[in-house]
Amino acid sequence: MAATAARTQSWAQEKLHQLSLHARVTLLAAVAVGLAVAFVSVAAYLTVRQQMYRNLDESLIQRSTAAAKSGVITEPDIMRQLPPEALGLIDIRMGLLAADGSTLVGPRSATPPIGPAELAVASSPSNGDASIRTAGSPNNQHYRVIAIPLGGDQALVVAQSLEPIDHTLHNLGIVLWSVGLLGVIGAALAGNAVAASGLRPLARLTGAAEHVARTEDLNPIPVTGSDEVSRLAQAFNAMLAALARSQDRQRRLVGDAGHELRTPLTSVRTNLDLLAQADKRGGLRPEDRKQLLDDVRAQMDELTTLIGDLTELARDTPQVRNAELIELANVVEDAVIKVRRRAPGLEWDVQLTPFPVWGDERLLGRAVTNLLDNAAKYSVPEGAIQRSDGQPVGRVTVRLLDGVLTVTDSGPGIAEADLPHVFERFYRSSEARSRPGSGLGLAIVKHAAEQHGGMIYARNAPGAGAQFTLWLPHAATQTR
């Protein structure tokens, strides 16, 4: 039985979920009103029925008790000669019941229903209790029967026909069913109207979403009111705005990437064409051929770096996934060792203090490496070579204190007009265009800082060159 009930409930839920929201609201309104009308109707029917029976019982008891006390109709001789019609009691059956079960009724009068309850009253003393019960069925002869003890092993039995009450209750039932049915129909119509009115903004929102999917037009939809549907529309507009910004970033990234990729690809193609033409004419001198191949390799390295930077930025995730506990000082130390090998002519002033963070060690390592590479590149004057006396040609200062990493170079600094743009993708100042690079290194640093809940900013340090400051939150203040 429990399994059957569970299957029935599962089937009902499945069928309900297949209905539209409009149909479900209409059905809910109809069912709610139907249940309310049903409860009210049953309560009204039972109340009226109980009150009518109570009034009839009181009337029967009062009249039967008065007749028993008068002693007129309880005399056998009078009972034999007095038909109920003479008293205007056409719907009443009346008779005298003896303890042995014999009955005495008037002429042309039917015997009232006799049962164990009436016989028990007839057999009781004169001060015994009366009995009252319902005999028969509403579809047949239906009576309310009362027995009053008379003493001497006799009882007065009076049976009142319930046909008028049954007829009244039948009509009441028809009225209640009719009113209930009309109420359910009215509730369904009202629920349908409310659903149509309440879901109209949802229909507009659905149409707007379908329009966006069909045309990729990300214009916001008009919002009126301040209800839940309006809040949903506002959230939808916010999503459209975020999607528009993402598309704009994607278009700019693709456009800038195409522009930046075109330069090294053109250079590689030109060098390869020169090499092929020279081979047809007998070839180049070994030193010229070596220089040309070195240029090709340098351009390929630049392409590799650029593609790696583009891959990193194309992820564009709002936060780091699968974060782990990292010691930031170790990440900075590894990056310093790596960059120092590539810039042996620089002096490195490094001071690090332990600082744990939650994050992606690979992404943080790349960001710190980019900062150090940028400092190393601009700390060496353009065209400078390593000094013969072994003295450094530039200086890079690295400090990590309380989660704040500062990298200061000894270069010329950043022009005031370029400071607001140094972290933009593919942005390169006029001084940087003659140096190698893609313009994505600092953009990756900003991307990594934002993903880890930190920030990065640049300024010109007094008495030195450019200074970049990277701040990251402590592991204790972050959630995994």
From TrEMBL:
InterPro entries xref list: HAMP_dom, HATPase_C_sf, HATPase_dom, His_kinase_dom, HisK_dim/P_dom, HisK_dim/P_sf, Sig_transdc_His_kin-like_C, TCS_sensor_his_kinase
Compartments where located: Cell membrane
A molecular-function term among this protein's GO annotations: phosphorelay sensor kinase activity
EC assignment: 2.7.13.3
Pfam families in alphabetical order: HAMP (PF00672), HATPase_c (PF02518), HisKA (PF00512)
GO CC entries: plasma membrane
All residue ranges annotated as the Histidine kinase domain in the record: 256-476
SMART domains assigned to the protein according to its UniProt record, in alphabetical order: HAMP, HATPase_c, HisKA
Keywords: Kinase, Membrane, Phosphoprotein, Transferase, Transmembrane, Transmembrane helix, Two-component regulatory system
Enzymatic reactions: ATP + protein L-histidine = ADP + protein N-phospho-L-histidine
PROSITE patterns, per the entry: HAMP, HIS_KIN
Domain HAMP: 196-248
Name listed for the protein in its UniProt record: histidine kinase
